[in-house]
Amino acid sequence: MEKPTKEFTKLLSDDELQATALQLDTAISEVVAAGEKRESVYGEKATLMKRGRELQTEIKLAESNAIMQIQGNGKDAFAIVDGRKIFLTNDTTRDAYRREVSRAERTELATVEGKIIQIDIELGKANDTFNTKVEALRGIQAKARLQAALLEYLS
């Protein structure tokens, strides 16, 4: 059997072995931290998606209630908005009335949907960071396996 070359034995110095152990420890900590960050982003998204669904239901209920408040028929149809009599003579005015009644919920829904998009971007970044940390850990693990194999070969 041939003796390992000088380059290989450099990998087995006390400093190199300690450095590898420290690198492994650091990489594992970074992977765990990146995973926790990713999980927290998922939790935020789930909460916002639930609120978005609730708002969609609230909008439907508010709008259906508004339609039930319409008095009269056809060209005589009207509703009372802020103490004023508003005539609802065509589809456009009825749609405007319906949207006005659910304005607050629609505004909040738009905000929630914007936050979900923002979280999707954060989630992409968190996934990229996590995957980068995992790949770095794999490289360090390969170095550690090489050192272990060399030590076993020399023993």
In short:
The chain is mainly alpha-helical and 155 residues long. The chain is 79% helix and 5% strand.
Which helices and strands occur, and which strands form pairs?
Layout: H1 6-10, H2 14-68, E1 78-81, E2 84-87, H3 91-101, H4 103-154
Antiparallel strand pairs: 1-2
Describe this structure in words.
The protein has about 160 residues and is mainly α. Helix content is about 80%, strand content about 5%. A two-stranded antiparallel ribbon has the order 1-2. Strand 1 and strand 2 (about 85) form a beta hairpin. The longest helix has about 55 residues, at about 15-70.
Secondary structure: helix percent: over 70%
Structural class: mainly alpha
The proportion of strand residues reads: 5-15%
Task: Describe the sheet with the most strands.
Answer: 2 strands, antiparallel
Instruction: Look at the structure and give the mean pLDDT.
Output: 90
Tally the helices: 4
Number of strands: 2
Strand order of the largest sheet: 1-2
C-alpha Rg (nearest Å): 32 Å
**Coarse shape:** rod-shaped
Low-confidence stretches: none
Order of helices and strands: HHEEHH
For the termini, the CA-CA separation is 13 Å
